[in-house]
Amino acid sequence: MSSPSAQVFYHADNQPNALWHIRGEKKVFVYPRREPYVSVRQLDSIAAGYADEQLPYDPAWDASAEVIDLKPGEVAWWPQNSPHRVVNAPGEPSVSLSVEHRTTASTRTERRQRADFHLRRTFGLTPPPGKWLDPVTLVAGSALAKVAPKQRARNERAVSFVVDPEAEGGVKSLA
Hints:
The strands form three sheets. A four-stranded antiparallel β-sheet has the order 1-6-3-4, with no helix packed on it. It has a three-stranded antiparallel β-sheet with strand order 5-2-7, with no helix packed on it. Strand 8 and strand 9 form a beta hairpin. The radius of gyration is 19 Å and the shape is globular. By secondary structure, it is of the alpha+beta class. Helix content is 24%, strand content 24%. The chain has one domain: Jelly Rolls. It has three helices and nine strands.
């Protein structure tokens, strides 16, 4: 549930999602899954847990976006890792349900991205995007991805407020 005119900023999800829309109206902007919208290194870092899903955004990219106008009862989905953003229409609250789903192919993509990240980071290798150099590299990268410690995403923000019904505006600053 979200407020009128609220938005979900430009990002790329690691897993495939479907957005089931229940109430209100919203626009979903889906961008090509290639540079300059997103790089292979960014997607690999997201899959490995070393970066959050937020990406740099340029409003000029909207000219290349597929725009989906969602009304109640409709659903939208887009290819795995496709950068996107969402803007609610003004006027009334919006209710949607975002559902993550996995397939054998999407799980394989996620594992390959994590392995590529760790091969690049640990050995300085530059795997060709979406391809493996050889079976040994596949095994080494997959093993590294499984044993490498997860690191907090660099772009995570510290909590700066808490919900407090007694405070003015319903929130209290922690700063």
